[in-house]
Amino acid sequence: MRKFSISDIENLTGIKAHTIRIWELRYNLVPAKRTATNIRYYNEDDLKQLLNIATLNESGYKISKIAKLGQDKVNSLVAQLQANRTNDSVQVQMLSNAVLQYDEAAFNKILDGCISESGLTNTMDQVLFPFMKKIGMLWQTKTMNPSHEHFASNLIRERIIVEIEKLGNRKDENPKRFLLFLPEEESHETGLIFARYLLKSCGHETLYLGPNVDYDDLKAVVAHYQPDYVLSVLTSLRLDKDLNKMLEKLMHYLEVPLIVAGSLISEFDIVTNERLIPLKNVCELVDFASQLANPAQA
C-alpha cells in the first residue's frame, strides 16, 4: 500500500497541512501513522477518507459535524453529492479519486453522468479542463505519477471521439475547412480533439493531423488541403518561454489564418497580427465556430 506524506495529502485534497493537524488534534480525525523512525505518513485508506471529508467540507458541512459521523455515513453523503452533477467541484474531486485508484468504471460513470446532465461542451469547460489542470499540478509536484495523467487523458480522449462519432456527417450550408495540428514539443491532444468536436458540431469540415507535426509537413498539407483556418491548442510548459517566438516562426509556414487556443494562450500575452487569432477559453472557441456557421447572427 502506497504511503503519502502530509504534503502529498495537502496537494491531493486541497486541505492545508496545518488544518489536517488541527483536525487530528481536536477531533482525532484520520490520525497519521508513523514509521519505525517516527516519520508521519498516511496510507491509501486514509487518503480516501480525507478526500471524502474534503468533499463534504467544501460542500458546506462543518468539520465538527463530519467528525461525529461514521465512515459509512460519510461515504453515503459523498455518494449523494456525487449524484448532483451540477456540483462541478464535487465531480472534479470524484474524478480525482477514480484516477488515484485507476478505476476506469468509476471514472466513466462520473463522466457519463456529467455529459448526460450538461452536455460535452459544458462538461469539458466546467469539469474536465479544471480536473486536467489539477492533475497536471499534482503530476508536477510528484504527488501523482505520470501514469495517472495518461490514464485520465486516454479515457477523456476516448469519450470525446465517441461524441464526435455521434455527430455523424452533419454539414453547414457553407462549411469552413479547418486543419488541426499540434506543433513539435506539444503532445497533449485532449484540447485539440475537443476543438474538432466543437467545429464538427457547428457543421465545419476538419482534417486532424494530431501531435508533433513538423513545420515543413504542415506547410505541404496546407498547400494540398487548402483550409480556411489552421488551429492548434497549446498547453505544454516547455513552450511557454518561447511561445511568441514559436508562433512567429510558425506563421512563416502558413498563408492562412492561425487560431491558437489552450491554457498557454489564456495565461500569457500573445503578440497578435492580422492572421493570428488567439482564443482564451472554450466560450470564445464556441462563439467563433458558431459565428462562422451563422454569420448573419454575429
From TrEMBL:
Coiled-coil features, chain-numbered ranges: none
Gene3D superfamilies: 1.10.1660.10, Cobalamin-binding domain, Methionine synthase domain
GO-annotated molecular function: cobalamin binding; DNA binding; DNA-binding transcription factor activity; metal ion binding
Keywords, comma-separated and alphabetical: DNA-binding, Repressor, Transcription, Transcription regulation
Domain HTH merR-type span(s) in chain numbering: 3-72
InterPro entries: Cbl-bd_cap, Cobalamin-bd_sf, DNA-bd_dom_put_sf, MerR-type_HTH_dom, MerR_fam, Meth_synthase_dom
Protein's recorded name: MerR family transcriptional regulator
